[in-house]
Amino acid sequence: MILENHANDEVHIISIEVNQLHMKTIYVVRHAKAGLGSAHTGDFGRRLNEAGLKAAHFMAELLEERGVVPELVLSSPAERAISTAEIFCDILRYPKERIEKRMEIYEGGAGRLLTILQEIADTSKTVMLFGHNPTMGSFLNLLAEGAIVSLATCGVVRIDLAVDSWREVRPGSGKLIWYEFPKKYQ
Most buried residue among 62, 87, 114, 167 by CB atoms closer than 10 A? Predict the structure, then answer.
C-alpha cells in the first residue's frame, strides 16, 4: 500500500496488487482445425484446413489487439500445431525460427507439460504453448483446477501464475483469466 499526501493535507491511499509485481503468464493454445490424416501423413502430418487457417488468423489478431507479446513460444512439432504457432507468431511479431518444437508436447501428458513449464528460464515472463487435446485440457485443469473440460480448436486460455520463478509452478497454482475461442465470435 502506498500513502500519497496532497497539498491540502488530504491523504489518499493507493493500493497496488502485489501479485502483479511477481507474475508469470502462460497462453495455452489448441491447434486450429485440421483435415483428416491420410495413410501417407498420419496424425502427425495433418494440415490446417481452410476454416483452421481463418480461425488461427482471427485468434492471433484478437491477441494482438489485447497487446499480447510472447517472450517464448513452445509448440508440438505436429504439422497442425506448428502451423498454428507460425500464424500466431507472424501476427504477434515473434520470430518463427525461435519457436521451440518439443515432441513431449505431442506425446506427453499433463504432468509432462507441467515439467516443461517448470524448466522455463525465468527471463521469460510470458509464454505461449501450442498443442493438442485431450492433453491441453488436462493440463489446464491441472494448472488452474477445474478450469476447462475441453479446449476448442484454436481456443486460447490465459493463465496467470503468482510466482517469481517457473520452478514454483504447482498443480492448482494458476488462475484462469480468460478463455477465448473462434465460435464465441460467430
Answer: 87
When pLDDT is averaged across residues 118-123 and rounded to a whole number, the result is 96
Q: At 149, is the pLDDT very low, low, confident or very high (cuts 50, 70, 90)?
A: low
Here the cell at position 160 is 496467470
In this structure, is residue 66 part of a structural domain? yes
Checking if the pLDDT of 12 tops 50, the result is: no
CA-to-CA dists, residue 102 to 11, 15, 19, 59, 141, angstroms: 53, 41, 30, 22, 21
Q: How many domains does the chain have?
A: 1
What is the domain-level CATH number for residue 22? 3.40.50.1240
Residue 2 lies inside a defined structural domain of this protein: no
Q: Where are the alpha helices (DSSP H) in 27-71?
A: 50-65
34 exposed, middle or buried (CB, 10 Å; 0-12, 13-18, 19+)? buried
Question: Does residue 86 lie within any of the structural domains?
Answer: yes
CA angle 136, 139, 143 (to 5 degrees): 140
Residues in a beta bridge with 174: 161
